[in-house]
């Protein structure tokens, strides 16, 4: 019995295994074969060029035989063209005629305290001693100077006493007349640049550093060019860094040639060469900018005297212009005295008269040196140097 049951179990297992094999084979037979893959088509290799690797042909720039570097040959020489240096544009300076009149408004803004102060005091109904003392203080504060102040007050006292009742118009006219007398209207204020027997005229500019000396020299060149003159500049200030560059820049703006020497070189030599060059070029004027001498240094002042003597080996100086900073007031007179002892000052240039300067310095410095103010600087602009005109100056002082 047991043998029969074991046989039956074995038969069932064998039949189950055979059934699984038959089903699996049928399933494999029923699945369709996968589609064939599209073969990758690769372009056939191109024929290689001679000396090149095989690759797809492409357009290539062709070189001439001159462009092909031959082995062992010399390196090509590259010729660089020099940079083009543009000449500076020549400026046309503003005409000098009436320049101070055009700048009158600017001058009056900074100077009318003097004129208006005097007019206010003189307009008082009773002019007692206290009032006259105030008038004196106003004049002294404006740097007119002690002696000129006393003279002006005495004349004003006399004229007011004779005039009696005073209208504002009469007072203005009275003050204008007296200030014109004090400033001086009968003085020759022309900058001498046209000697009768020779060319060029020679002008030397002197002064302490910081007064605007080199700038004034450049502006004076513009004034002369505006009047139709030809100019050579001599950069004899060899002790101050960049002074020669500054002067040359001023000259280039108006087409004036600048003679310069090495830094810390002999200023007398530069001045001598400038006059020589001016003669050879046939220009009208040579302007020589000298080093800013400290008036307390005897050796430096002696050097300035040497420059003058060397220049005069060519010809006498026609002008020696002393540049003074108008804002220094009475302190500028100390400088003026020492410079006058070393060189013969022929004219004065007052710079910075448009700021806090007091117009009375014009009177004081003329009285101190006995030479006229010929030019005044009224600002930082290139054309703000003006010939001094007493009438326009006094009108600016007392205002409208």
From TrEMBL:
It is found in: Cell membrane; Cytoplasm. Its main location: membrane. Residues 49-62 have a biased composition (Basic and acidic residues). It comes from the Bacteria. Residues 25-62 are annotated as: Disordered. InterPro entries: AAA+_ATPase, P-loop_NTPase, Signal_recog_particl_SRP54_hlx, SR_rcpt_FtsY, SRP/SRP_N, SRP54_GTPase_dom, SRP54_N_sf. GO terms for biological process: SRP-dependent cotranslational protein targeting to membrane. Residues 372-385 form the SRP54-type proteins GTP-binding domain. Keywords: Cell membrane, Cytoplasm, GTP-binding, Hydrolase, Membrane, Nucleotide-binding, Receptor. PROSITE patterns: SRP54. GO terms for cellular component: cytoplasm; plasma membrane. Its EC number is 3.6.5.4. It catalyses: GTP + H2O = GDP + phosphate + H(+). It is a peripheral membrane protein. One of its GO terms (molecular function) is signal recognition particle binding. GTP binds at residues 207-214, 289-293, 351-354. HAMAP family: FtsY (MF_00920). Part of the signal recognition particle protein translocation system, which is composed of SRP and FtsY. Belongs to the GTP-binding SRP family. FtsY subfamily. Involved in targeting and insertion of nascent membrane proteins into the cytoplasmic membrane. Acts as a receptor for the complex formed by the signal recognition particle (SRP) and the ribosome-nascent chain (RNC). This is Signal recognition particle receptor FtsY. It comes from Streptomyces echinatus.
